[in-house]
Amino acid sequence: MTALVIRGGHLIDPAAGVDGPKDILLKDGRVAEIAGPGKLKFANGAAVLDATGLTVAPGLVDIHVHLREPGQGYKETIATGTAAAAAGGFTSVAAMPNTRPVNDSPEITRWMQAPERGASVRVFPIAAATRGSKGEAINDYAALKSAGAVAVTDDGYPILKDNIMRETLAAAARVGLSVIQHAEDTRLTQGSSMNAGPMAFKLGLRGMPPEAESGMVERDIRLVTELRDARVHLHVAHTSTAAALAAVRQARRSGLRVTCEVAPHHFLLTEEHVGFYNTNAKMNPPLRSAADRDAMIEAILDGVVDAIATDHAPHAIHEKEVEFENAPNGITGLETALGLSLRWLHKEWKLPLGRVLSLLSAQPAALLGLKGRGTLAVGSFADVVVFDPKAEWTFRARENKSKARNTPFDGWTMQGKVRWTISEGRIAYGSE
Amino acid sequence: MNPTASPVRRQLHPPPVPASPFPYNPGSLLSASDLTLEGISHILARATALENQDPLTRDRILAKRRVALLFYESSTRTRTSFELAAKGLGADTTLVSSLSSSIEKGESLKDTGLTLRALGAEAIILRHNSSGAAWLLEAETRLPVLNAGDGMHEHPTQALLDLRTILAHLDPVTRTCNPNKRPVILSGAHFSGVEGPASPTGGQHTIHEVTAETLAGVTVSIVGDILHSRVARSNMLLLPRLGARVLLCGPKELLPDLAANAGPGIAIERNFETALRQSQAVMMLRIQAERLAGLALDLEQYKANYQLTGHRLATQAPEAIVLHPGPIIRGLEVTAGVADGPQSVILEQVRNGVAIRMAVVERALLPTAGQGGRA
To answer: Which of A96, A258, B64, B168 is within CB 3.0–4.6 Å of A251 for a Cys-Cys bond?
Structure first.
């Protein structure tokens, strides 16, 4: 593999504590050397990328995406989903198991990582916690882990039964896997398509009460407490309510290993953005109240939130052009996460650039134990994003790399234009 | 711990909520809140003018124009009155219902709408079981769409015909509704086959020019299954804009507290007697069994608290008019005696439906008719 040099850029690597002008040598898929400007000694013939005026950072890590394969290639494929990831600056994506069939086996886990899938960036499968994600029988976590699974979850189908969830947490801890819970007490959300509140009443839609989320988080934290096992790691997916965040905050104060992620749409939008039945503003958990949204922002700023994750959920156009109640949940996110985070968290709400990048790379990588990812320390994987931090641009869904167009951010102003995304030493995306 | 306790450290300026692009077509009537006071006045005036017009000249207004009625739910009043209204103006109508069309084969609302448009439909009247369906259809076809009821959301022509009914009985001086006020029948009343003592077709005192004060001092109670009612939502958006106070009355399961926040001029009164005593008009709603979604309701308890009986009416609101959008379930929300009694204006509502819908269909197809100058 040829060597690649990124020269003249400003390196920000929060995990390594680097924030300054550096040149980088990538070789054999790893970071080979980092040196001050012009100080790298590299062999002639190495490709050189001129990053003058650009920021160089660890490739972004999204621990919550739906790549739809196997089974729903009409929505997205691993190839198109990872192309979208690369365009958005992501070099690692953790793929949820709600595929058809559900990824509850080492075979599917391996299939998803096979070279034939044509992935542009690294895919880390998250396996189903229970057989068929039915919440009844626990899968063989040791076998799933050795096939490459990095966590277990029944995302979209929360584990309701206390005993099954307890068993899941304990069994996953024994093999060193995290348990990711989509926190929703589905007994309280039957037939609902948006947040419960004045907006749902006004629109004549059945609402999901915030307690359906926070109650489940509280239940899960109680189970973690009862297990008294330091290896147990509960990760709360796509946190959307102030009450759920409060529960996570409290658990952390008690020393429990409980982490959480927030999606860009939950720190930017509210139920008001549903407008008149915009199906591209329909997802689960739903857009919440302004108070909940503000709580997400505050929790990101004060460090309670461990990661920004997109919950990239592509759907075919025709699936969203239907009655609001009949539309599937979810929006795309891979190509807007960096631009929205820089535009709002950094520029508007003054979160330092290094902290934004950490939430999008170092922290999520550490959270799932993705070794050598989320940092550019020498010896790490050569996963790099090079972007112009000042550039503003307009996101156009019809031009995105994902197969899908279901986003509420079409036409929004983004900040930070990705110039190159490099995955294990190969250029996975480049813009002119 | 209290999730709201963490102090906001800085003033957040989150992304704004974009303005609604609806309605795309000025002829559409999606929501009762789409109409200005001038627009409401215009519809009321045109309703009376069209009702009184010679049918032989009236049917030239929309002669051979094409109007599609697209019905995903069963309907007696709304469907028939829209059809009579469109035909009364000379339009050709076609009815597409979910049980006798390709909808049964899985055709989407979008494709059904585009098909109707390709067949020459110039406006679509839509009744649908999903909230928001009319917005989807309008966005996809860009035709004038008349919302004839979308799920639990809105039923704007019902609110307009309810308004017309209330205004016909309103004494502008005392701000009371007189059930005995029966405006004279003018020459152009054409639905005389409908039983009833008289047709309220715009007597001398009927109000057509409405303002923000027209219903000042008037309290309208809406009683029963508010949660699932599109009639309630449209009325609670429309009536307060004319100055009315809307009292919502019902049990918590059918009337959540947050309903009071749906707009200005809306309050909740759980006690039926207390609500009745303040009301000049009482609108009774059917319990929508088809939308209860597993909600168990003690009907005997419900009747004990919220059924409008002759005794309740006589003792608490002897002067009020009683409205009901239909269908009535006699013996549940109202007794037969009240439904057929002297304070009931239920069949007047039905008659007003045709007049209002003529005005609304005309507005859909003659854009200039929406500007307010025609009457």
So the answer is: A258
Name which of A99, A29, A125 is nearest A427 in CA terms: A29
Q: How far apart are CA A280 and CA A406, in angstroms?
A: 5
Same domain for B283 and B170:
yes
Chain B residues touching residue A297 (CB < 8 angstroms)? 12, 14
Asked if B170 and B274 sit in the same domain, the reply is yes
Q: Does B261 touch chain A (CB under 8 A)?
A: yes
Tell me the chain B residues in contact with residue A243 when contact means C-beta distances shorter than 8 Å: 3
User: In the structure encoding, which two tokens stand for residue B233, read together?
Assistant: 């939502």
Q: Please indicate if any CB of chain B lies within 8 Å of the CB of A323.
A: yes
Residue B19 counted as domain residue: no
Nearest to A204 among B108, B136, B151 (CB): B151
Hey, what CATH topology would domain A57-367 get?
TIM Barrel (3.20.20)
Tell whether B147 and B168 lie within a shared domain: no
- Residue B282 domain flag: yes
Assess if residue B194 is contained within a domain: no
Residues B323 and B219 grouped into a single domain: yes
Domain A4-56+381-430 matches domain A57-367 at the CATH topology level: no
Of A154, A311, A388, A410, the catalytic one is A311
CA-angle at A306, arms to A380 and A385, nearest 5°: 40
Same domain, B169 and B289: yes
Nearest to B131 among A203, A250, A322 (CB): A203
A254 and chain B in contact, CB less than 8 A: no
Quick one: B226 and B100 in the same domain? Answer: no
Residue B328 lies in a domain: yes
A278's tokens? 């915009």
Structure tokens of B51? 């009702």
Q: Rg of chain B over CA atoms, in angstroms?
A: 21
Q: Are residues B128 and B104 in the same domain?
A: yes
pLDDT per residue of chain A (432 residues) written in tens, 0 to 9: 579 999 999 999 999 999 999 999 999 999 999 999 999 987 677 899 999 999 999 999 999 999 999 999 999 999 999 999 999 999 999 999 999 999 999 999 999 999 999 999 999 999 999 999 999 999 999 999 999 999 999 999 999 999 999 999 999 999 999 999 999 999 999 999 999 999 999 999 999 999 999 999 999 999 999 999 999 999 999 999 999 999 999 999 999 999 999 999 999 999 999 999 999 999 999 999 999 999 999 999 999 999 999 999 999 999 999 999 999 999 999 999 999 999 999 999 999 999 999 999 999 999 999 999 999 999 999 999 999 999 999 999 999 999 999 999 999 999 999 999 999 999 999 997
Best of B2, B4, B6 to disrupt the A interface (most A CBs within 10 Å) is: B6
Whether A323 and B9 lie within 8 Å, measured CB to CB: no
Distance CA A270, CA A272 (A): 5
pTM of the predicted structure, to 2 decimals: 0.93
Q: Chain A within 8 Å of B19 (Cβ-Cβ)?
A: no
Q: Which domain holds residue B218?
A: 157-185+200-346
CATH superfamily, region A4-56+381-430: Urease, subunit C, domain 1 (2.30.40.10)
Q: What is the DSSP string of B220-277?
A: EEEES--TT-HHHHHHHHHGGGGT-EEEEES-TTTS-GGGGGGSTTEEE---HHHHHH
Whether residue A311 lies in the annotated active site: yes
